[in-house]
Design goal:
mainly alpha, 5 helices
Length: about 130
């Protein structure tokens, strides 16, 4: 009984963080949706909601070419990642023995180095201000 009460307390402590994370995502997506259907007119005080931009983009053939190419690339990357990562993870989890920590570091460090500088906002800001 003590154990279940402890879990309930842990979930109760995590609830505000989870709720705030969901709210941030939902508010961001809502703003994107509202801005995507607004007609921008710098001379008007109020803007009207319209689906014209969606109609224009969906009627262009290049949109469909780019969309299908993006979906194909993302599917290929997903399959390649699954085919490479699951055997490596299985080996590290069940066969690595005392070298588990070293193998995890050897896998994590190159990804951290490759993504480290490019995953931050410093690079786009630097490009904007030469």
């Amino acid at each position: 009984m003590v154990r279940s009460d402890n879990r309930l307390g842990q979930y109760a402590m995590l609830a505000p963080l989870g709720i705030s994370a969901v709210l941030v995502v939902l508010v961001s997506l809502g703003l994107i949706l509202v801005l995507s259907v607004q007609r921008t007119d710098p001379t008007a005080l109020f803007t009207e909601f319209t689906l014209d931009s969606y109609r224009n983009e969906l009627s262009r053939p290049i949109f469909w070419v780019v969309l299908l190419r993006s979906l194909a690339i993302s599917a290929a990357v997903t399959v390649a990642t699954l085919l490479l990562s699951y055997p490596v993870a299985y080996f590290i989890a069940f066969k690595a023995g005392r070298h588990k920590a070293l193998l995890l570091v050897l896998i994590s460090v190159p990804a951290t180095i490759l993504l480290g500088r490019h995953a931050t906002l410093a690079t786009p800001v630097e490009r904007m201000n030469p």
